[in-house]
Amino acid sequence: MPTAPKGVRGAVITGWGSALPPRVITNDELSQTLDTSDEWIRERSGIHERHIGGTTAGLSVISGAAALAMAGLDPRHIDALVLSTTTPDRCVPATSATVQHALGLSCGAFDVNAACSGFVYALTVAHGLIAMGSSKVLVIGTDTLSRITDWSDRNTAVLFADGSGAVVLEAVDGPGQMLSWDIDADGSAEESLYAELGGFIQMEGKDVFRKAVRIMVDSATKSLAVAGLTADDVDVVIPHQANIRIIQAACERLGIPMEKASTDLHYTGNTSSASIPLALVDAADTGKIKKGDTVLLVGFGAGMTAASALIVWGGQ
Ligand code: UT7
């Protein structure tokens, strides 16, 4: 188990931004072409509508530019770009290269693919870069799952969508915001959720549901233990927005009241890498997260991966 990052150069989030494509698809619209209903989708997933369209680079540029503007930073001062995505625009080069150029950055750029856990993986890596000397890192989570979704498959089409969320991390004197982190993977569960190159997402929904709750709880429990905190110390949870029932079950097992969870899946659907940053941005913009709050980010995804991090909003 990793130890809490004490004694290393800390970082805080100083800007954030998001992007959702303008095209909205409601449950009723899906019901016109699939054997499903608004009632079923709402009850079984919590999703009411989702946004579809654009490219991974295009959405990343919008959210990244918003985060840079909020932080008041000249793009040339960014030291690294870490883009979490499981739907790159091309095999080669990494989509982060396109985003780096479009945003006017002059720094290293690379993609991270850990599916829906990817943003927390990327955020952890970015803290590591700052601990090793970088000053300002842009972290973006973007997915365009609509491009790998079979729109005639009701098992997946009702869940997945497109979006992007970004944060700017800046080095600070002192410990910064990160209390603890955890990244996990279990490749033996690969067949539960996958897409072949050029193919559509294949998913064993019930199996993923069961594993998701367990691995989210395991990861969050590890991060709490490393930080020396209990569930009562958590002010806000930013969970992966896959299914409201998964979030409810995980919160219940962790002993965290559901009111502490930030949820936006009713209007975003499951946007994979964008899911956690979109919920984080939503919580920050609506005042659900306040300075000094202890925030638990926790996700799971194909792989099967899981990741969590405990941060103090605004720094310790
Ligand atoms: O980022 C990670 C990505 N994946 C996930 O997080 C997925 C995790 N799994 C889930 O969210 C849920 O398992 C689903 C939302 C996919 C399904 O919900 P469920 O409560 O597990 O439903 P189910 O698979 O047990 O299906 C219940 C019934 C079945 O009919 P019968 O056998 O009871 O007659 C299904 O055939 O609902 C039927 N069904 C649907 N009906 C209307 C399955 N999909 C649909 C649908 N619309 N879209």
Walkthrough of the structure:
- Helix 3 crosses helix 4 and helix 7 (205-227) packs parallel to helix 8 (244-254).
- The chain starts with 9 loop residues before the first strand and ends with a strand.
- The chain has 2 domains: 10-172, Peroxisomal Thiolase, Chain A, domain 1 (3-Layer(aba) Sandwich); 178-312, 3-Layer(aba) Sandwich (Peroxisomal Thiolase, Chain A, domain 1), CATH 3.40.47.10.
- It has a 5-stranded mixed sheet with strand order 1-7-6-4-5, sandwiched between helices. It has a 4-stranded mixed sheet with strand order 8-13-12-11, sandwiched between helices. Strands 2-3 form a two-stranded antiparallel ribbon.
- It has helices spanning 27-31, 38-45, 56-71, 95-103, 118-131, 154-157, 205-227, 244-254, 265-268, 275-285, and strands at residues 10-19, 23-26, 49-52, 80-84, 108-112, 136-144, 162-172, 178-185, 193-194, 202-203, 236-239, 294-301, 305-312.
- It contains 10 helices and 13 strands.
- By secondary structure, it is of the alpha/beta class.
- Bound molecules: oxa(dethia)-CoA.
- Oxa(dethia)-CoA (UT7) binds at residues 36, 40, 44-45, 116, 154-155, 158, 193, 203, 205-206, 208-209, 212, 242-243, 270, 301.
